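Re: the 249-residue chain
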Amino acid sequence: MQLQDILYSQGFGIRRVCSGLVQQGWVEIWDSEQQAFVPVRDSMLELEPVGLRFRVQGVEWHYQAKGYIMLHKPAGTECSQKPSAWPSIYTLLPQPLRQRPCKGAIQGVQAVGRLDQDTTGLLLLSDDGQFIHRMSSPKKHVPKVYRVTAKHPITAHMVERLCAGVVLDDDPRPVRAAACALVSDCVLDLTLTEGKYHQVKRMLAAVGNRVEALHRWKIGDLVLPEDLPSGQWRWLTAKDLQMLGFQGA
C-alpha cells in the first residue's frame, strides 16, 4: 500500500495533502533495525500497513484499519457534530480521527449512542458500521452500567420498582433495569440493556426521586480505566473488543 494511501486512510487529508506531507519531510517511519524514526520523502513508497508505526509532524501513530476508541466524556459536552449549546465531544479528538474516510456522507469516527451533556463516563466511537450497530442496537442487549447519584435516599421499594419496570410518559410499555445495586444511601449502580431519551433520569423520576449526577462506567465487560482522565481518549485493544463481545475487528 502506498504511503500516501496509508496516510489518507488514517485521516490525514486527501491524497494530495498526504503526498505533500511526505514530500515536505513531515512523515517518519519506524525503522526496526535502526530503532528510530526515519524521514521518508517518497509518497508512493510501498509499505505493509498492518503494524506500521509512523510519525506525522512529530506525533506518533499506529496504523488502524478500523477506528475503535473510548473517550472519557466530561460534563458540559454534547455527543453531536452540530452542538446547540455546549462544546462537541468531537473537539476532544485529534483531527485525523475526525477525518477518517468513510463510505457515508459523515467522515471520521462516530459516537456509539449518546450521553446527555451533563452525563460523564465511558463513550465508544468508531468508523465501523458493524461495530456501531452491534453496540447500540437494543436487540443486542449490550449491558451498560450507570453510577447514579440521587437527590434523595434510594429505598428498597424504589429498587424493586426499577427492576420490575416503570412506565415512561412516551411509551405504555414498562422499561426496567437489568440490575440495580445500592452503593450507598443516595448512590445506585443501574444496568440497562436499551437506551431511551433521558432514560435513567426519567426512570428515577418515575419512582419519586431525582438524578443529581450520572456517570457511565461500564459497557459489556469493559470498564472505564481509572487512569484515563476526563476528556481523554485511547484506542480500544483487541482485549477491549473481546470484553465488548465484538469479534469483527
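The mean pLDDT is 94.
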